[in-house]
């Protein structure tokens, strides 16, 4: 029956590219979590909106589950196909469709890489300001599905602030044209914002109109070494009061150890427990003097142990590599990842509590922290010891994550700051959302996806 159904799909959509080779199934059936064995039915690579609609109609008729797929750089299992689903990859829908100079918008297909969007915006003297380390491999469709944040949220906000309009194929195959690029639109529910962050459970983004911005002012990058955790938020407050920050990122000495071993160059001598990479507007001498004053004040108060300011674009890139290279450097260690957030005002108390929790629960396991401390987002990477089996390691990590979720609930935080819920975190959704909210979320899904074929098992079981 499966073969007959796929043959029928090919007859309906003769130009549709379908892959069924074992290597393709494995490649497209997983994301960066690497925790599930991929077992998709097949891989469909549509080249048009019409083909996406045709796939969805076929899937509804044949009751075949669909897993939407972009760059598959997710860390929550949101793009995993492990139970005979059809993977709908948007890799071929990767073009820039248009630029509007008056509206200052760029319309793109969902499979385009974030880095390509950056390049297209620069061609028109503008920027698309959402940015993070996976820019070369992640796709805009995936960014929208998880409301991606990244390193410049402190200045520009998350992805949803930059989406002017979306075209979405809902679970029943209908094409929705959401918001149409309007700045003001108070005509009922804004389904565009509902789709953003929905992890492919409501519909498939097939076109996006992105808002662009003016390029930032000339900036400078500074690396700071801090003596203890308590200094983190005090230095953030000091710099935010004196400078116009574009980014404020922190990492630990353990994170630095791994990224240096991966090929980055040390920028500050000596051993320090915490580091910050910050970028700020520096258009003139006055702004540069303000940065030096803030640094000197931090040193005088015992909040900063050492620091270096980039003197060239190359040095700025080298300083940023110390932060952006962390995820790649940890990959060989099979990290279990927690991506969490609290209000900025709650960060100090929360950090103290979870430091005690992680020290107690992981006495013999290396834990690497880094994150976007300026927007309350922390990434916790637990590295698997060689002495533990995968199953035992995951079981221990899930026990700790349950405790972490309870801590987040007390502090009013979220179990997922920017990676989504997917398969990894669905057991902890109730720590972030009330039972009433989850019931409404299920109800919304049933309207957009009446047969429950879109990314089943993701977000909630």
UniProtKB/TrEMBL annotation:
Record field: transmembrane: none
Coiled coil: none
Highest rank taxon of the organism: Bacteria
Statement: the UniProt record of this protein carries the keyword Oxidoreductase: yes
Keywords tagged on the record: FAD, Flavoprotein, Oxidoreductase
Family: Belongs to the FAD-binding oxidoreductase/transferase type 4 family.
Cofactor(s), by name: FAD
Species the sequence originates in: Dyella caseinilytica
PANTHER family, sorted: D-2-HYDROXYGLUTARATE DEHYDROGENASE, MITOCHONDRIAL
FAD-binding PCMH-type domain span: 36-215
Protein name per the record: FAD-binding oxidoreductase
Signal peptide positions on this chain: none
């Amino acid at each position: 029956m499966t073969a007959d159904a796929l043959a029928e799909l090919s007859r309906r959509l003769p130009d549709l590219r379908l892959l069924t080779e074992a290597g393709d199934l494995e490649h497209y059936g997983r994301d960066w979590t690497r925790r599930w064995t991929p077992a998709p039915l097949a891989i469909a690579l549509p080249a048009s909106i019409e083909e996406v609609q045709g796939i969805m109609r076929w899937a509804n008729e044949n009751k075949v589950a669909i897993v939407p797929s972009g760059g598959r750089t997710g860390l929550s299992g949101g793009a995993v196909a492990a139970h005979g689903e059809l993977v709908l990859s948007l890799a071929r829908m990767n073009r820039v469709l248009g630029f509007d100079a008056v509206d200052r918008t760029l319309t793109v297909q969902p499979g385009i890489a974030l880095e390509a969007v950056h390049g297209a915006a620069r061609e028109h003297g503008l920027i698309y300001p959402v940015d993070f380390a996976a820019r070369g491999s992640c796709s805009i469709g995936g960014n929208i599905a998880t409301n991606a944040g990244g390193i410049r949220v402190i200045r520009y906000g998350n992805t949803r602030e930059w989406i002017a309009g979306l075209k979405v194929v809902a679970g029943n195959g209908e094409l929705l044209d959401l918001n149409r690029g309007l700045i003001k639109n108070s005509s009922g529910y804004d389904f565009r914002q509902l789709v953003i962050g929905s992890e492919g459970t409501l519909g498939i983004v097939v076109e996006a109109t992105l808002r662009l911005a003016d390029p930032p002012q000339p900036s400078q990058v500074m690396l700071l070494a801090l003596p203890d955790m308590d200094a983190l938020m005090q230095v953030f407050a000091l710099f935010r009061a004196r400078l116009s920050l574009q980014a404020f990122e922190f990492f630990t000495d353990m994170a630095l150890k791994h990224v240096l071993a991966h090929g980055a160059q040390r920028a500050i001598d000596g051993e320090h427990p915490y580091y910050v990479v910050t970028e700020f507007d520096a258009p003139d001498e006055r702004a540069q003097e303000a940065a030096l004053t803030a640094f000197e004040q931090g040193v005088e108060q015992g909040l900063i142990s050492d620091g270096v300011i980039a003197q060239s674009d190359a040095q700025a890139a080298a300083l940023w590599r110390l932060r952006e290279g962390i995820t790649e450097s940890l990959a060989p260690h099979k990290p279990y990842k927690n991506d969490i957030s609290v209000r900025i005002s709650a960060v100090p108390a929360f950090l103290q509590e979870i430091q005690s929790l992680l020290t107690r629960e992981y006495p013999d396991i290396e834990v690497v922290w880094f994150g976007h401390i300026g927007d309350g987002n922390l990434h916790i990477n637990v590295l698997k010891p060689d002495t533990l089996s995968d199953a035992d390691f995951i079981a221990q990590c899930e026990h700790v994550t349950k405790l972490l979720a309870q801590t987040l609930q007390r502090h009013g935080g979220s179990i997922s700051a920017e990676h989504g819920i997917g398969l990894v975190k669905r057991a902890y959704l109730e720590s972030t959302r009330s039972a009433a909210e989850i019931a409404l979320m299920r109800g919304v899904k049933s309207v957009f996806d009446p047969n429950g074929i879109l990314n089943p098992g993701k977000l909630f079981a």
